Amino acid sequence: MKVLITGADGLLGANIVRRALCQGYQVRVLQLPSSQSPVLKGLPVELSKGNLLNAPEVDRALAGCDYVIHAGASTSVWPSRSAATVAVNVRGTQHIIASCLKHGVRRVVFISSAASFSKGTLENPGDETGVFDGHRYGLDYIDSKYRAHQMVKKAVREQGLPAVLVCPTFMFGPYDSKPSSGAMLLAVVQGTLPFFTRGGKNFVDARDVAAAACNGLKMGRVGESYIAGHQNLTYADLFKLIGQTLEAKPPRFRIPSPLVLSYGRLHSLLAPRLGYDPMISLPIARISCDGQYFSPAKAVAELQMPQTPLAVTIGDAYQWLEQHQSGLSGATKVGPPIQKIPNPANS
Asked: Does pLDDT of 194 surpass 80?
């Protein structure tokens, strides 16, 4: 059985590819012509060059595949309003839907986002019944992922698309070559992150999300959404855990929310004029001051999603970065792609 995987270069996609191979699937990946895909080197995968924005290239990549896991997306958060981000996330998903219907694939797993649902509290985490409220942040990444989510749901209802929607929370894990979330771990170890904000998130191992995605090819109910998460933590507790796990000093001071919001507002105004990418824009400041807490109970029950202890996740993610970053300076030095990192929850 052959599965097409989009977004295979990213943290989640690279883990999905490995999980699919371990489950015995033949894997084809849709790869941008300009991409070198360093985290895929050495893996027994078929490369199909193409762009999600090019419908014929998507169709060519999908032809002959039994399954599709659509993890490809633009995760850019600057500029906050971005036609390019919307195009990739919305039009790219339209092309995937049309091609899946044309070729009659057996199952599609669409990688959405937990932000497609309203967040909850630590005491009462949000779930798949929550109504989207992410528009309040003013971020095209969140809005476009929600639009794509709704497009998939509509195609299920009206056109019979055999899709399951997997909605990750905030992921850590190995094969984070950018690095993305791993930059947070590097900052704590290097002592360049002295402050934290009031909010928090649900955090999860990317390998567990990959397991849920691959299981979704055979498990789960068509048309259903599954929040793929694990542990809810405030930022204060997250950084404490990172410090304990990596034997580093966590940031000690919490910045008052009004100051964070003022900082984000200032840099959102200055950045376009001065031509730089702000570390914290106003939408990111708003998100960082909120609690983004969710329950993964449905994904655990119906997709048999593992729940790796977060300390193990952090340790393994940092171990991979340590082995593949030149001096942990942010310069990528990607080595052998099949790195055996223990993960008891996935064994």
From this structure: yes
3-state SS string over 310-345? Answer: HHHHHHHHHHHHHHHEHHHCCCECCCCCCCCCCCHH
Q: H helices of the chain, where?
A: 11-22, 55-62, 83-86, 92-103, 140-159, 182-190, 206-215, 235-246, 257-274, 282-288, 297-302, 310-324
260 pLDDT exceeds 60?
Answer: yes
Beta strand pairing status for 170-172 and 200-205? parallel
Q: Output the CA torsion sign for 100, 9, 190, 307.
A: positive
Q: What does the alpha-carbon distance between residue 215 and residue 322 come to, in Å, rounded to a whole number? A: 30
Q: What is the CATH number of domain 2-253+278-330+337-346?
A: 3.40.50.720
Model confidence at 337, pLDDT cuts 50, 70, 90, reads very low
Q: Domain boundaries in the chain?
A: 2-253+278-330+337-346
Confidence of residue 36 (pLDDT cuts 50, 70, 90): confident
